[in-house]
Amino acid sequence: MSDAFSLSFNPLGELVVRLADDSLHTKALVVRAFPIAEPDHSISILGAEGKELVWIHDLSTVSPANKQAIDRALQMREFMPEILRLDSVNSFSTPSTWRVQTSRGPTAFVLKGEEDIKRLSTNTLIVADAHGVQFLIRDLPALDRHTRKLLDRFM
């Protein structure tokens, strides 16, 4: 893999892009075009002014060092924990408190109403808590039976 760019972080934690023409761009941003449907495809690296510097069609074609920098930049920018398991709910009427295991660790949140569960596709849901934090359920059929049963009560 021979990328036409290299990524690093400066001492201030800002993403720095070095392009093939040896130009340096600090305060770059990494943005996914389709963060839920295709998180490893269609990624743009933007300069501080918002101009696209690099377009990545498929993340698997990027060198391991650049991929690691992209992953780090995305983790700093994006926060949408994925629900891996629903442990319990305190009530089947809303508002209700959900205790869940997420990709970021265990947490509890309040679901204000059923309308805060949005179906993006047959297998993908977004659940918004009372504070507006969004949680992703990427693959509904892959969840354990207990979790699917609890979710069915709200949908």
Label this structure with key terms.
155 residues, mainly beta, 5-stranded antiparallel β-sheet, 3-stranded antiparallel β-sheet, 2 helices, 41% strand
How would you concisely characterize the structure shown here?
By secondary structure, the chain is mostly beta strands. It has helices at 64-77, 145-152; strands spanning 5-9, 15-19, 24-32, 41-46, 52-58, 83-89, 96-102, 105-111, 117-119, 125-128, 134-137.
What would you call the quaternary organization? single chain
Overall pLDDT confidence: 92
Give the SSE order as H and E letters.
EEEEEHEEEEEEH
Low-confidence stretches: none
Total count of strands? 11
Distance between the termini: 45 Å
How is the main sheet built? 5 strands, antiparallel
Rg, Å, rounded: 19 Å
Proportion of residues in helical segments? 10-25%
Number of continuous helical runs = 2
Biggest sheet strand line-up: 1-2-3-4-5
Shape: elongated
Sheet/helix structural class: mainly beta
Beta percentage is: 35-45%
How would you sum up this structure, described in words?
With 155 residues, the protein is mostly beta strands. It is 14% helix and 41% strand. The protein has two helices and eleven strands. The chain has a five-stranded antiparallel beta sheet. Strands 6-7-8 form a three-stranded antiparallel beta sheet. The protein is elongated and about 60 Å long. The model has no long low-confidence stretch (mean pLDDT 92).
